[in-house]
């Protein structure tokens, strides 16, 4: 991937991550003292589901971009490929585990 494409992806990921983070913080503060069934009722709203899933996916994508920058700087091609595969496995596993736990699907 070209450096300019990586830079643009990183910028867009950062901006959207800030937007999703603000929503997540507002949601967290609003639901801090509520019980689990009350939180699940709030999450039934499609907008809340979209924003929370967007936050999870965008933060995972942003982490992937940052890891790739580290791999490009410090590893040779073969080692970089191995670490990229391991990173994909871990990040996808996190998404698969986290989304059902918070009851979004």
How would you characterize the overall build of this protein?
The protein has 105 residues and is mostly helical. The chain has a single domain (3-101), classed as 3 helical TM bundles of succinate and fumarate reductases. The protein is built from four helices and no strands. The longest helix is centred in the middle third of the chain and has 29 residues, at 46-74. 3% of the residues are buried.
Relevant terms:
105 residues; mainly alpha; 86% helix; 3 helical TM bundles of succinate and fumarate reductases; single chain
Task: Give the arrangement of secondary structure elements.
Blueprint: H1 3-30, H2 36-43, H3 46-74, H4 77-101
Helix pairs in contact: 1-3, 3-4
**CATH-defined superfamily:** Fumarate reductase/succinate dehydrogenase, transmembrane subunit
Query: What does the overall shape look like?
Result: elongated
Q: How would you classify the quaternary structure?
A: single chain
Distance between the termini: 33 Å
**Tally of DSSP β-strands:** 0
Order of SSEs: HHHH
Structurally, the number of domains stands at 1
Sketch the major β-sheet.
Answer: none
Low confidence ranges: none
What's the average pLDDT?
83
Return the structural class.
mainly alpha
Strand fraction = under 5%
The CATH topology is given as: 3 helical TM bundles of succinate and fumarate reductases
Instruction: Output the CATH class name.
Output: Mainly Alpha
Nutshell version of this structure?
This protein has 4 helices and no strands.
């Amino acid at each position: 991937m070209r450096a300019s494409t990586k830079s643009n992806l990183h910028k867009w990921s950062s901006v959207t991550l800030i937007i999703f983070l603000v929503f997540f913080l507002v949601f967290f503060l609003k639901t801090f003292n509520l019980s689990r069934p009350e939180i699940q009722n709030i999450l039934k709203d499609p907008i809340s589901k979209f924003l929370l899933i967007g936050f999870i996916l965008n933060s995972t994508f942003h982490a992937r971009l940052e890891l790739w920058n580290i791999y490009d700087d410090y590893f040779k091609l073969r080692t970089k490929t191995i670490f990229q595969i391991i990173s994909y496995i871990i990040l996808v596993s996190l998404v698969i585990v986290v989304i059902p736990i918070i009851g979004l699907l």
